[in-house]
Write a structure and sequence with these properties.
alpha/beta, Nitrilase/N-carbamoyl-D-aminoacid amidohydrolase, Rossmann fold, 2 domains, 7-stranded mixed beta sheet, 6-stranded mixed beta sheet, elongated, ATP-binding, ligase, NAD_synthase, nucleotide-binding
């Protein structure tokens, strides 16, 4: 047996906070070494933080990472563990995103990332250069390139994030060259349901290449991109262990690398594929011999046996229901996003929310409270401040709902009417217009802008983080006010569809039993900026609105195709009515781009987020002829 204990670590890093990032990693490194971990891996760009975007173009941003890498090496010199950490280096005019192998107090080698994504939230080709097959250079006296690393326990094959997502990635040639333990340092953002895709991919790659794969993912939120952490250890297609997500820490497990090599020899398809690859001109990756500079201590390791003591029977089923998994993951991700923005910017002292008594602001408050409960469990409400700003259109029902949930959560609550200010501002607008009448929509927007102005004034005076509370569905069709409810410092649920907002609130009502949630849900959704406003009556049923958004913005269907798809999805609705909904949606969506590009930084939870810089790059000025059949 060649027993190896592998540690998968995720540290909550901040872009540019090099020393703090390394301090966090060192804490985990020492704990793993104390538990006899043989190989420990951290995430991509551990030292610099991710994503650094154009900061990578500053020479100082790159140069200051190397001393921290050396510090990590020096402070782990006495530990009997091989560490693989993410770092950026500047080499001969190139910026390279690397996995650094560290052991015995030395940086033994650097392996650059080869596959650079430029889709979804990624822009790596803009700043980084690629590693490539056969790359063999030296950086600061350290081998830099396409290498394997031989230790007394086996052969490591480091790689970085996207390299595992390509079937034509470096993993194939490295395993054909003798790589046994592939260590992937990743920074894969949270996306709803995506953890299952990661798990399946890693199992597939481990089976295809007959190797053991260790995968560690980044944790924390930077600029609205949320990394959920977590990691996987898979041996030749068989799941070994998974690390908990949304929390800093590590998980370790033992594997027998002799098993990986035995299965490799038994797999005739893998052997014949390797022969064909070599015959077709494939070149073996060189191996750096590290046995002289480092010796592992594995005497205390024991053979990995099932906790339930059976190799044939399944262990206890700890899987969550699909509903619980979706809701808890989404709530955890958004709470992490709020908390990290609040803490890492170091500009705020308290979280502020304008409660309307409606669904969106309620969910935003519950997410912020979820974060506050984690950091101040004894008094989470002390980190929050809620305001209710009624006008003549505000109902007693919404006021009571807002008061009730604030009381249940222990959140300070103030009622600050805007009626007098509304009258004054309305009079000013009438004076400015002369003989022209104030439109009904202007009256609505005045109220929204007064509330936003007061929240900004509060924020400026007390260091409050003003949370914007709008959802994605209404934002997509411009059912929002520039300078009003579209404003804030951080848009918490701006990428959460309205149907998902309601789904989450139903779930939280069942889980918590809060009376405030029940009261909010008892009233039809509407902004209360005019008499008897109901959102679905002014727009369309929210399930249809969200379906339109997904099919048009996500699947890129034309309006005529949308009608066909919606007819199959909602057969109870007349085709003519569906056609009217589609025409309305497309018109409002294209006319509202100028609005949502002005919205604040938002938390990302998927590939369909409304963010022109990162997710949906649509021109603000555009014609609509192309939408016609």
């Amino acid at each position: 047996m060649r027993l190896v204990k592998v540690g998968l670590a995720s540290a909550n890093t901040t872009v540019g906070a090099f020393s703090r990032n390394v301090d966090r990693a060192l804490t985990l490194a020492r704990k793993m070494a104390a538990e006899d971990v043989t190989v420990a891996l951290f995430q991509e760009q551990l030292i610099g933080g991710y994503p650094a975007e154009d900061l990578v173009q500053w020479q100082g941003f790159i140069d200051h990472q190397w001393p921290q890498l050396e510090r990590f090496a020096q402070e782990t010199a006495s530990l009997s563990t091989v560490f693989v950490v993410g770092v950026a280096v500047a080499h001969q005019g190139l910026r390279l995103n690397c996995a650094a192998v560290v052991a015995g107090g030395k940086v033994l080698g650097l392996v650059p990332k080869e596959k650079l994504p430029t889709y979804s939230v990624f822009y790596e080709v803009r700043t980084y250069a690629r590693g490539y097959p056969g790359m063999a250079e030296v950086h600061r006296g350290v081998p830099l390139g396409d290498y394997l690393f031989r230790f007394d326990f086996g052969t490591l094959a480091p790689e970085v994030c996207e390299d595992i997502w390509s079937a034509d990635g470096p993993q194939r040639r490295r395993t054909y060259s003798g790589g046994e333990l592939v260590v992937n340092l990743s920074a894969s953002p949270f996306r709803l349901g995506f953890v299952d895709t990661r798990r399946e991919l890693i199992a597939t790659r481990a089976a295809d290449h007959q190797c053991t794969i260790a995968y560690a993912n980044a944790l924390g939120s930077n600029d609205g991109i949320i990394f959920d952490g977590g990691g996987f250890l898979n041996q030749n297609g068989r799941h070994v262990v998974e690390t908990p997500r949304f929390q800093e820490g590590y998980t370790a497990a033992v594997v027998d690398l002799d098993r990986t090599m035995r299965l490799r020899t038994e797999n005739t398809t893998w052997r014949s594929d390797r022969e064909a690859w070599l015959a077709g001109g494939g070149k073996l990756v060189p191996t750096l011999d590290c046995t002289a500079s480092f010796r592992s201590q594995r005497e205390k390791l024991t053979y990995p046996v099932p906790a339930h003591r059976s190799f044939f029977l399944p262990g206890p089923d700890q899987r969550r229901s699909a509903r619980e998994a979706l809701c808890e993951d989404l709530l955890d991700a958004l709470a992490l996003g709020v908390g990290d923005y609040f803490e890492k910017t170091r500009a705020f002292k308290v979280l502020g929310i304008a409660l309307s008594g409606g669904r969106d602001s309620l969910l935003t408050l519950l997410i912020a409270h979820r974060y506050a409960k984690r950091v101040r469990p004894e008094n989470p409400g002390s980190l929050l401040q809620a305001f209710y700003m009624p006008s003549r259109y505000s109902s007693d029902t919404t006021r009571e709902a807002a008061e009730t949930i604030a009381r249940e959560l222990g959140v300070p609550f103030q009622v600050v009417p805007i009626e007098e200010a509304f009258d004054r501002e309305l009079a000013v607008v009438k004076q400015m217009l002369g003989d022209k009448a104030v439109t009904p929509i202007t009256e609505q927007n005045i109220q929204a802008r007064l509330r936003a102005q007061r929240m900004w004034n509060w924020s400026n005076s007390c260091g409050g983080l003003f949370l914007q509370t709008g959802n994605m569905s209404e934002k997509a069709v411009g059912y929002t006010t520039i300078g009003g409810d579209l404003m804030g410092a951080l848009a918490v649920i701006a990428n959460v569809p309205k149907t998902v907002v309601m789904y989450l609130l139903d779930y939280l009502q069942e889980k918590t039993g809060y009376e405030g949630i029940r009261k909010v849900l008892s009233k039809p959704a509407g902004p209360e900026l005019a008499h008897n406003q109901v959102g679905e009556e002014e727009l369309m049923p929210f399930p249809i609105l969200d379906a339109c958004f997904y099919l048009f913005a996500g699947e890129k269907l034309l309006p005529a195709e949308l009608v066909q798809a919606l007819s199959a999805m909602f057969p109870e609705v007349e085709t003519a009515r569906l056609q009217g909904y589609v025409e309305k949606f497309v018109r409002l969506f294209l006319q509202s781009i100028y609005k949502w590009v002005q919205s604040p930084l938002s938390l990302h939870i998927g590939n369909l987020d409304l963010d022109r810089e990162r997710a949906m790059q649509i021109p603000v000025v555009t014609g609509s002829e192309w939408t016609r059949g």
